[in-house]
Amino acid sequence: MRIYKHTPWTPGHWAVLPLALLAGATIAPAAEAPRYPQRPVRMIVPAPPGGTTDLLGRLVAERLAESLKQQVVVDNRGGAGGVLGAELLARAPADGHTLGVIYTPHTVLPHLQKKLPYDPLRDFAPVSQLTEAPLLLVVNPALPVLKVADLIALAKARPLTYGSAGNGSGGHLSGELLKQLGKFEATHVPYKGAGPAALDVISGQLQFQFASQITTQGFVAAGRLRAIAVSSAQRSAALPQLPTVAEQGLPGFAFVNWFGVVAPARTPPPLVDELQQRIAAALQQQGMRERMTALDSNVVASTPRDFSAFLAADYEKWGRVLRNSGVRID
Questions:
Q1: CB burial readout 213-251, b (16+ within 10 A) else e
Q2: What are the structural domains, with CATH classification, of the chain?
Q3: Which of 20, 112, 168, 201 could make an S-S bridge to 108, C-beta 3.0–4.6 Å?
């Protein structure tokens, strides 16, 4: 039998005890942060299937799923110019498992509606602006309209109606700007998406519409819609033969739709940064850039900080424009 003799602790023993404990602490394994994502990610798209917002959301969701090696489920919540989807996103847990697409109306509607169920700046964590894209001005081909001047003359001779994807959407704002600069009146009819509005232009219930290339290109190619102008300040690289509205006698007319991804407010900044980096890498892929070009969209892929600054500036800009124009929700 081996007998261990107890040795009393001396002051020297107590002096080295903290060092021994520290050494033991360094050996103990550190607790790992939970892996992200832990379950499928939800991508809220505030538009019905078929339009530019939906297509962009699906393209980003597809590439993000490949990067995260986790399913990204698109949840279409169309209506009210994006308000329904944005409200749902603002109330979601801030853990990175719910993201959402926002677009032009996000910084416009607060100036048109007295009360929204969320704050457009404070209730969201900007991740990245995705793209920017011009709109096409299209008319029913049965109308005697080949250029902007013809549309203005017709509007001054008879009542016209135009449609958009909803109050505060790019199509709505472009239509109001056209009315102001062209000095004519036309009734705005909001829809739950640009696609349904385009169908009513084709049927003759509406006379014109500003809508994305992806929404209208098939109808234009088939002769069911006639494109007479592009909304941007410069001609589109995808449709260089189509003149701008400004070129056709309305200098100063310019409008470009933008799209971006946000998360609920209080989503951890490191997680927001990771998502931005993954999205930016996806947008820079050759195949994605070609798809964006086909949609007549320019890739932006901004940082969270830059996108936040952009949203604040756009919010202020439309506040000034709409106060001066007198536009109100229909």
A1: bbbbbebbeeebbbbbbbbbeebbebbeebebbbbbebe
A2: 41-132+257-325 (3.40.190.150), 136-248 (3.40.190.10)
A3: 168
